[in-house]
Design brief:
OB fold (Dihydrolipoamide Acetyltransferase, E2P), signal
Length: about 900
């Protein structure tokens, strides 16, 4: 595609996900005619126009990406009905033919109401049947001269299907704008393009005018490329820019001032009246000053805007002037008069202003108030609109006034930087309280920090002479505070130090307090480090009663020493001497709280002590002299690089990118891969994640465990022996999980008793041992929307959820497999889950339409009537809680009646949903 070179308006290109752009159809308007012979529309438009009476149909332009250089112009002209899509695509790079360009130009001129079915195109010009009335009208409107066009058409060439050139489109566009005389005046003037000599003499004036109006520029290399073809994206841009020079008064285009926006609605004051439009996710927002998309939040109240309407919905909104159309009047309030009137003293003269229910009143803190809250002698700033003769006040702001009050309200927000608290009173008014150095926030007799005050807390406060003089929290909500841990008071009372070094008020610890320490499964209070100088940096969650319900360790002052060598260990004094790789010595102390790890499923301090012999390599963490944890290095983890059988060396790369070379002595080094009975070193592939297990002397590799991940459906759980029987790839397998970390779908630690038959799990094996087991979340629902980046479902619990694509995508249905979510339709019922490799797996449930017969409560089976005499598929087991419903109404299987038409949905052989028709 030949692209317009960038101008000062900066046609920005960005790579983005596919965007659903929309085009609406209106019956009876030629500009939106859904004729299958018209290549400016398509099959989608025909189908939409014939389905539902007043439904607003849309075309999905799946080939116009967000950030596409012509996106704004495509949106605009598609919304106006000047150019449409084709089978769900816009085809931005397709070339435009001459008969198509003429059709678009006539729509642009808004003269298609003059089309007559029996109009005849000039015999000299060969055009397709559909376009003949358009060509006849183009001749009448002097867009084309038949003799001129015939002379430029080669023998055997059809004029209508000839691809439109850039200089020819410039001529048509200039004529459509009524600038023919300007083009004639500029005909003798050369252009500044490097290929000026190749521009036809008859076209040069049109090119000059088109360039001067910035409708078109050029292509790379300062060329105009006069005979180059014009794409659909380019002609949409030319026509869209051309609208700045004409007023065609399209029936669905409104220009005016935005008087309200929000809650899915927008009101525009246009042509002396207010007009409301619906806003939805398909509404496109742009500004006149930019080619890139804007957001609804960019639309400023009382700014000027253009709205393109489709059956009451704003398809396209363009901010034409962001400046609010308001003027400001300042004065002193003399009195609030009856009849919604204010009497102000303005420049020494009394002036009356009449307001209405739409006028918004603010106090000096910017919070909304009621009109009767205004005090005489207050300085008032009144903003009134300038776009009507009434000049109605829209904002009344108190600039200064005296406030004395005691009140109660709920905290809406807290701004710690400005020390400002927004409180909504019980009456509905809002106060913005500024905390000064003399006011302390009190809660249960204790001073509370501003950062600890959370929205939702109930407070009482007093203001005197506009200043806050007291603030007390009468009802708190869950809140968090941060600091360093000083003591835990036998698990009853927690003491912490604030960031400024002062001590916080001791806090009671809840009996069910949750402790979170990164890297420790199911930690308890005993895993926390409380110390006056080196305690854990923690975030404390407090409930409404001020009890600590959660302690999360954010950081530790501990120092980590990796791969140090033991010099000596004094078991009596528990003194450990080590040297690091630079031979720097450390003398450290172990105690009963030191966490230990070595090649054992139940490591103990005494067991560790037996291993702390000279030259033993270990990794440890410590605070000062106190050792927090010791890990004997008995294995290395990383990605397999390769091996040398001659020198018996194995290479792997660890997570830090360091390549290790490890020795092995056994030519038949054991390699363990889950599911492979006799793996060898040759079974390994570069990049495989492995664990190299060392000998007791740490000098050679004695075995290799390969990490693999598989997904299973649990069939049985032996909780006594921590053993699971599960199915994967139609194979039933049994494995132990006693050494595995067990997690639920959200990543929280669980017990083996929390696993049950029917659960899907992702299992990480280290060799043949399960190291990590995580439950897989299954989301069942009906597809309401799908694009390349996400799928939206109405789930079995009635909620609507959007699931983003994570990594690779696989959509599986009976007819085959796809790798894009766009393969889904709104008729699909699906289950979404994460595959073992982290990708998104969507399985389309298999539907079966049948007539209901009866339910056997003993066998828990649903019986349906035979579809044919040979049909034996008539009974289905009702498993664990299938979703049975009619529309949004949940049913029981007992409520189904004989001869009800039902659709059964299956996930594999499991019945998961029954829909009553």
């Amino acid at each position: 595609m030949t692209q317009e070179k960038k101008t000062s308006r900066s046609l920005k290109r960005t790579a983005a996900t596919l965007l659903l752009t929309l085009t609406f159809m209106t019956s009876g308007a030629a500009a939106f005619a859904a004729d299958p012979a018209d290549p400016t529309t398509g099959a989608d438009a025909v189908a939409s126009a014939s389905t539902v009476g007043n439904t607003v149909p849309t075309l999905l332009f799946s080939d116009v990406a967000s950030g596409f250089w012509a996106e704004k112009h495509i949106y605009k002209l598609a919304s106006e009905g000047i150019i449409l899509g084709d089978n769900g695509k816009f085809r931005p790079g397709d070339s435009v033919t001459q008969q198509e360009a003429i059709t678009l130009a006539l729509r642009f001129m808004n003269v298609t109401d003059q089309l007559t079915a029996d109009a005849k195109a000039p015999d000299k010009l060969e055009v397709s049947a559909y376009f003949k009335p358009y060509i006849a009208l183009a001749v009448k409107e002097k867009l084309i001269n038949p003799d001129e066009e015939a002379a430029a058409t080669a023998a055997g060439e059809a004029w209508g299907t000839k691809k439109a050139s850039r200089e020819w489109v410039a001529k048509i566009l200039v004529r459509a704008l009524g600038r023919e005389d300007e083009a004639k005046s500029a005909a003798g003037k050369g252009t500044t393009f490097a290929d000026n000599a190749t521009i036809s003499a008859a076209a040069r004036g049109y090119v000059n005018v088109a360039v001067s109006l910035e409708l078109t520029n050029g292509v790379d290399g300062n060329r105009f490329d006069p005979l180059g073809t014009v794409t659909r994206a380019q002609i949409a841009t030319f026509l869209s820019r051309g609208q700045a020079y004409v007023n065609q008064s399209y029936d669905n285009v409104y220009e005016g001032v935005v008087t309200s926006i929000g809650n899915g609605k927008m009101t525009l004051y246009t042509n002396g009246a207010s007009r409301s439009f619906t806003l939805d996710s398909r509404t496109a927002y742009f500004t006149s000053a930019s080619e890139t998309k804007a957001a609804q939040s960019d639309v400023v109240l009382y700014s000027k805007a253009m709205v393109i309407d489709k059956v009451g919905t704003a398809a396209y909104v363009e901010i034409t002037d962001p400046t609010p159309q308001l003027e400001t009047v300042e004065g002193t309030l003399l009195s609030s008069l009856s009849g919604s009137r204010l009497l102000l003293l303005v420049n020494g003269e009394p002036v009356t202003f009449t307001y209405d229910n739409a006028t918004v009143f603010y106090d000096q803190n910017g919070q909304t108030i009621k009109p009767d809250s205004l005090s005489n002698d207050s300085t008032i700033e009144l903003k009134r609109e300038t776009f009507t003769a009434d000049k109605k006040p829209v904002i009344v702001q108190v600039k200064s006034g005296i406030v004395n009050k005691s009140s109660k309200g709920t905290v809406e927000s807290v701004d710690t930087s400005s020390k400002t608290i927004t409180v909504k009173e019980e009456s509905g008014n809002e106060d913005k309280l500024v905390l000064n150095s003399t006011v302390k926030i009190l809660y249960q007799g204790q001073v509370m920090e501003l950062a600890d005050l959370k929205p939702g807390s109930v407070v009482t406060y007093t203001i005197k002479d506009n200043s806050l003089i007291s603030l007390e929290v009468t009802q708190s909500v869950e809140r968090t505070i941060s600091g360093s841990l000083i003591s835990l008071g036998n698990g009853k009372l927690l003491t912490y130090k604030k960031s400024d070094g002062s001590y916080g008020t001791p806090l009671p610890i809840s009996q069910n307090v949750q402790v979170v320490v990164d890297g420790i499964a199911a930690p308890s209070l005993s895993d926390l480090i409380a110390d006056d100088n080196g305690g854990d940096q923690v975030q404390l969650t407090l409930n409404a009663n001020g009890e600590v319900t959660k302690i999360e360790v954010l950081g530790r002052q501990a120092e980590k020493l990796s791969e140090v060598s033991v010099v000596s260990y004094d078991k009596t004094r528990k003194l450990l001497t080590v040297v690091d790789t630079d031979n720097n010595p450390y003398v450290l102390e172990l105690d009963g709280k030191t966490a230990v790890e070595y090649n054992s499923t139940a490591p103990t301090l005494s067991g560790l002590e037996a291993l702390l012999n000279t030259d033993r390599k270990i990794t440890l963490t410590h605070i000062g002299k106190r050792v927090l944890s010791v890990s004997v290095i008995y294995q290395y983890e990383g990605n397999f690089v390769g091996f040398d059988s001659a020198s018996k060396k194995l290479k792997l790369t660890d997570s830090a990118g360091k390549t290790r070379e490890l020795a092995f002595t056994n030519a038949s080094l054991p390699v363990y891969i889950y599911g492979q009975a006799s793996a060898t070193l040759s079974s390994l592939k570069a990049g495989d994640p492995i664990t190299a297990v060392l000998s007791s002397n740490q000098d050679v590799v004695q075995s290799i465990n390969v990490k693999t991940t598989k997904q299973f459906e649990i069939k049985a759980v032996d909780t006594t022996n921590s053993r699971i029987t599960a199915v994967s790839d139609n194979l039933t397998q049994t494995f132990y999980v006693n050494q595995a970390t067990l997690l639920n779908a959200n990543g929280a630690v669980i017990k083996v008793t929390d696993l049950k038959a029917g659960d899907f799990i992702n299992v990480l094996f280290s060799g043949s041992t399960a190291a990590n087991v995580q439950q897989v979340k299954l989301t069942y629902g009906a597809v309401t929307q799908a694009d390349a980046s996400s799928v939206t479902l109405k789930t079995f619990d009635g909620s609507v959820t959007t699931i983003p694509a994570a990594g690779a995508v696989k959509v599986v249905r009976d007819s085959g497999t796809s790798t894009s979510l766009t393969a889904l339709t709104t008729s699909d019922h699906v289950v979404v889950k994460k595959a073992a490799d982290g990708s998104t797996l969507v399985t389309v449930l298999t539907p079966l339409e049948r007539t209901y017969w009866r339910y056997d409560s003993v066998s828990k089976e649903v019986y349906v009537k035979r579809s044919t005499l040979s049909d034996t598929n008539i009974r289905f087991s009702v498993g664990a809680n299938p979703y049975i419903h009619q529309g949004d109404t949940t049913l029981t299987v007992q409520s189904l009646q004989e001869n009800d038409n039902i659709v059964l949905y299956f996930d594999g052989d499991k019945l998961v949903e029954i829909v009553k028709q």
